[in-house]
Amino acid sequence: MKDPPFGMPIHESSNTKDNKAAEVVGRRIKVFWPQEGTWFEGSISRYDQDKGKHRVCYDDGDKEWVVLSAEQYELLPDKAV
């Protein structure tokens, strides 16, 4: 099978996307909240495959379900044990 031409998207199966989405569960994250103009750190606790949303539990106690692709975020490096 030939490689797609440069600039052509490579489509992934939904299983591949779900596996990648589930891989970030347990990771530390920081999400930018534009209304407050600041970043908030937390942990990704779950992934809902049906809704395509991740559960973020912020360090300040707030929790929300987010579509990561719609957010400005950064995964934080894993802490050394």
From TrEMBL:
The cross-references to InterPro entries, in alphabetical order and at most eight, read: Pds5, Tudor, Tudor_AtPTM-like
Q: What are the BP-aspect GO terms?
A: DNA repair; mitotic sister chromatid cohesion
Q: Which keywords describe this protein according to UniProt?
A: Nucleus
> What is one GO cellular-component annotation here?
chromatin
Query: One Pfam family for this entry, by name?
Result: PTM_DIR17_Tudor
Domain named Tudor is located at: 21-79
Cross-referenced SUPFAM superfamilies: Tudor/PWWP/MBT
**Nucleus recorded as keyword:** yes
Q: Does Nucleus count among this protein's keywords?
A: yes
Compartmental location:
Nucleus
Q: What is this protein called?
A: DNA mismatch repair protein
